[in-house]
Amino acid sequence: MTAPVxxxxxxxxxxxARPTGYALVRAGRASFLVHRRAAAVATALAVLLAxxxxxxxxxxxxxxxxxxxxxxxxxxxxxxxxxxxxLRLPRMVAGLLVGAAFGVAGALIxxxxxxxxxxxxxxGVTQGASALTVGAITYGITSYAVLPYLSVAGGVLAAALGxxxxxxxxxxxxxxxLIGIGFAVALRSVTHLFLIKGDYTVAQQAQVWLTGSLxxxxxxxxxxxxxxxxxxxxxxxxxxxxxxxxxxxxDTATALGVRLNRTRLGLVALGxxxxxxxxxxxxxxxxxxxxxxxxxxxxTRTAQIPLLCSALLGAVVVVLxxxxxxxxxxxxxxxxxxxxxxxxxxxxxxxxxRSRAVGGRA
Length: 362
Known about the structure:
The chain has 362 residues and is mainly alpha-helical. Helices cover 67% and strands 5% of the residues.
């Protein structure tokens, strides 16, 4: 019987020698190899995320006691029902889902590209989503019921063009990244053109959206994204296992009967859809998809980027970033994208310098 390995997605067969650093977990007739360090990191991140969420519900213009915040969050009668249940909780849930989607999207795209720099906001996916969305806003389409679908369409179209141009009898990882960066620059110029051509008031609204913000977000944005993530959960579970084959060369994959190009295409498509949906819900919150996967990999020290840890880290970064954005210059609220960019830009520079030091690979 085969079973997946937590943290890497690799299956193992019962009876074989257990790899170092793994523990065998049995659940009925099934058994799983769990990477001990990855499991410990995921547990710690889940506890950290719970603490950040509690702080988010408690801290604001008025402080709410933790007990009252938890009562309101779970629908029990509380004096903080309006502040927590109506204002803070929906915005926090939207941030959780956006961060998790960006984290997993970044992990999948970096896995296929085999490059730490290949996050959706670097290779043109979020720029494609932004260009089409800002174009729609410029021409009067401002409904949050429509904008997320336009973001998905823009992101998928940008990624499809990059994939086609990078294809040379197979997907060349370095070529995919470089072409994606070129598309990102071009699409950013298209977005600025829409801002210049549009009405001033509408352009200001679009500019705020472009910074990546959870201000005003609630159940209307969180619910569609949550349902979409639930529907895509089986695909994410498949990706956790399939990503182990991506580092193979074409000859090895063919000898093992792996359809490598189809697997890469599936992983990229899933990552693009997740990143585009997150962009539609909160705007292009930059560098979350860059930071979360690489931080998760360094913490777990697994062969593949851990999807669960990437999702948890993405959620922590967005929720904590939005909490700080609300409080640093209170009563003025900063967009969360400003905080993530302030942290992510230096990290991107670090990755570029490090990639040069190790011969071109991050």
